[in-house]
Amino acid sequence: MSINCYQPQQHSATMTQNSTSERTIKLADYLFARLGQLGIQSVFGVPGDYNLRLLDFVEPSGLNWIGTCNELNGAYAADGYARINGLGALITTFGVGELSAINGIAGAYAEKAPVIHIVGTPSRALQDSRTLVHHTFADGEYRRFAAMHAQVTVAQANLIDPRTAAEQIDSTLQQALIHSRPVYLQVPDDMVDVMIPASNLEAKKIQVPPTPRLKYETSILTTVLERIYSAQRPLIFVDGESRALDILPQVDELVKITGWPTWTSTFGKGLVNEQLDNVYGFYAANYGSEPETAYFDSADLVIVLGPHYSNTNTLGYTTIPKQEVSISFSGTAIQIGKDTHRDYSIQQFLTQLLESLDSTRIPKITGPPKPQVDFNHITKSDAITQDDFYRFVDRLFREGDIVATETGTASYGGRTFRLPPRTRMFGAVTWLSIGYMLPACLGAALAQQETNKYKPVNGTGQGKGRLFLFIGDGSLQMTVQEISTMIREKLDIVLFIINNAGYTIERAIHGRKQAYNDIAPWRHLQALSFFGGDEEEAARNNFSARTFGELEEVLQSERIQQGSGLRIIEVFMGREDCQGLLRTLMNTQIAQDAQQLR
Amino acid sequence: MSINCYQPQQHSATMTQNSTSERTIKLADYLFARLGQLGIQSVFGVPGDYNLRLLDFVEPSGLNWIGTCNELNGAYAADGYARINGLGALITTFGVGELSAINGIAGAYAEKAPVIHIVGTPSRALQDSRTLVHHTFADGEYRRFAAMHAQVTVAQANLIDPRTAAEQIDSTLQQALIHSRPVYLQVPDDMVDVMIPASNLEAKKIQVPPTPRLKYETSILTTVLERIYSAQRPLIFVDGESRALDILPQVDELVKITGWPTWTSTFGKGLVNEQLDNVYGFYAANYGSEPETAYFDSADLVIVLGPHYSNTNTLGYTTIPKQEVSISFSGTAIQIGKDTHRDYSIQQFLTQLLESLDSTRIPKITGPPKPQVDFNHITKSDAITQDDFYRFVDRLFREGDIVATETGTASYGGRTFRLPPRTRMFGAVTWLSIGYMLPACLGAALAQQETNKYKPVNGTGQGKGRLFLFIGDGSLQMTVQEISTMIREKLDIVLFIINNAGYTIERAIHGRKQAYNDIAPWRHLQALSFFGGDEEEAARNNFSARTFGELEEVLQSERIQQGSGLRIIEVFMGREDCQGLLRTLMNTQIAQDAQQLR
For residues B192 and B53, is the Cβ–Cβ distance under 8 A? Predict the structure, then answer.
């Protein structure tokens, strides 16, 4: 809000010619045209009085405006959108808006989602005169929020000069592409419709610059080929930065051409086709099957793609392949054992590697047996358990779907999903800001719908891709209001709410019985109605299950199998029920508590 | 969450003696004992795996733990609590938690609410070895978030050393008291139960240090007294930083002893007794009554208390008294005309001034007439309008209540409330982060309940104070989930939701008909039930009104007059209806749109 009266001006994206015959365009039109060129179709955010005039240009430029309930949710949504679409954008207002969003921007930085954070700021006149306006500390200091964003973005620009604005926009956007990380653009209110040179729009494409061919490239390539041909117990380990490296087609081909045992990290899950015989899915180290761990541990060659070695993505560093047997592709570096070779385009190198591979010389490897899953031990009246729930429901997923698991028991459990091909998955990686996943799914589902990228290729006749989100009741409370935007945008989402009465993951870590891990109980199945869904539809799109029998009925229901829009399934599970690593932690807690009672 | 297994240790606040006979105490016990000494009874926040062990100490130390649905809401709540209680505290976890909260901390900085932001951080071992853990950027850099907080807090400390931790805590807390602004404390996970010296706890009180008596103090006092005695058209202008200066009793006495016409700013509203004959309430300059403006403009002496001259708190700088006739008390400075006299204790100076005042020499002044309010022009079937709504409902308020208006049409309208004595009011001032007010009211209502500070003194027989919050439907969406905490904590709150279909304040500024100022429609009266209220009670505590007749019935109802707990009144008003300055802005928009159609 503001007390300044603006003089709104009519705008149009038509370019004009100035006296020196150079074509010009309004700054906002230039910026949004660039976003469109880079494949962005929707922009997220919240209006505020320093960005209103900027927002006037969004829809006329052909972009959809997706107003979110608050800015943090908008940032999360832009991040989810970027992970599916390749790039996302968020518009906030100075101070209050951008700082509300900053945790989402930080998460995008940590996990490599390229989000363009555009902030509408006070006019240059107000800033230059250090006027004491709202959304500041009334101290005349206008640069604090940019300084804060410099900690969480790879490039920043303050667009105060029409002579350089176009180049600033271009180079900032390019940095987002290069690093697959967020950038920050400030647009003063009076710069929105200032005319700037338009020539770059057609003459200069924004793209990742090519990497010069390096002197030693051939010898490195030869080394890698020889290691492949001579391998006896090789494996491929796909980690999540492969997405940011834009090498998923190359990874797919490598997995198929070698037929080698392939695992992913949490972050990498969903980036390779888990239906292939040689793909084992998530590597769980000590929490997985013994034969797999034995194979992994005794490998003499591990091809590592897009490594991201935080404690949480590596189960406490236990899934990191041994350096001495690894050839690792990350950023612009190829690491062979202890030697790092820098300044390569990984995409280019892998392409060349695949072209050079003599498939007859690739060792044929039989990997360890895959563990079999069955549900013979379950009866209909059994309470739903974390152990069996995830593999029980994963038959719902179809090619083209997106599957997401929020940080908590869901993110641990969801690692055991067996995914259909071309099914993208989001799990908790490193930033682990609970509350992230619900708005991120708003963004991801929207990108899925817009791009059709993840639709089934061979026409299963089952319509477009859906999104399945698994979220705990504690996480849900953080950002629940974005359910209303999912409803408004008519997205096809199935939302599993795991009701286990609080922060179970925290109980497993510390404070199992402490009240601080409790939450207020909500009536989850009233969400669709409260947040504005059609009341009759809402009633039909609500489900709940306490036993596997009830769950089976829900999974078979027409609304879940073939329905559309947002559907909510509340699943009740034990307050201390968890599996995998979390179970080990919880058991330690239980043992300690028992000891104290003695 | 974390993959580290902690070894929980039994703790107790009992002090122990070390070898040199110095008494020691666990760091967390020390910290929470200090908060208790400073009058904090409840602490807000969200658990996260780097603060769990710290949280173990909260309740044993006698503090209440108030878990909020997310960290931004926690920060807002701590701010609201601080404004009523004098000091508030928030506990978050490293990275994700503290950055989610940072916009709330920034708001507390802007509007001078002393909030202690305590962050649980990874252990010193992890930090020292630059281990790549979750809630970081997996780059070994642990200091980014402190750097960001340095922009929005007046003091910061990282408690990594038991030798200095006590002094660091003390001096950081003292800075919060001195500046009435937020501070930042990092507690590594392994420092929580480290023993530190306890002696300060009893030997050294944390307080604002005294100001030395200054050489010129007597002559300044004489000057001020002479100006008071010789005034012909004097007035008192109470602004909001008076709260932070801790001079409200002195202000009250000055207003009573002089009997001079007194106005407040938005920020100052509720800090003086509006039932006194000489108190006019909010000074609206061009949007108020002509005789008041005429008096204000022709004053020959304006005593200004706690000025805060942002554009929004001064209606675009139109309510700032002329410098040449002003004696202004702010921070530690007394400004007489253009001369600034520094390093005074304003509290001490005003106390001395009041002691020195010869009441017989104070000019008796008759102020301008007060505008009369009546509702004769309203009939029962009239739709509710912004113009009349606020004065229509203000008879609900009783001594001891708190009244809050969220940024938007409510904050503009609420300036016209006539408040009973000892009724505190929060309005939109400078930070104006929409979404703030609902969680802030959670904090304020809790402080109100705990302290009894604002209970009626002369026993009206009507029970304890309530809180009335007026909030628009757009703002509500930002932070709506904290309704569940209001329910859980059984706070006596009446929530007026102004349903005008979107961001009306933004429509008044720009984009009157633009879709970006729309929001998804919600079923507000399902909130009590969705967020876990008792279902039968919830049904009875819901109200709605579209006409003044309906509103009158609601106001008269037993549940509103005498009820307890959270009650919701949905009031429907026009999409473009607003009053005061906002109406002027909206009319400008309408005129411009009409012109464009021609």
Answer: yes
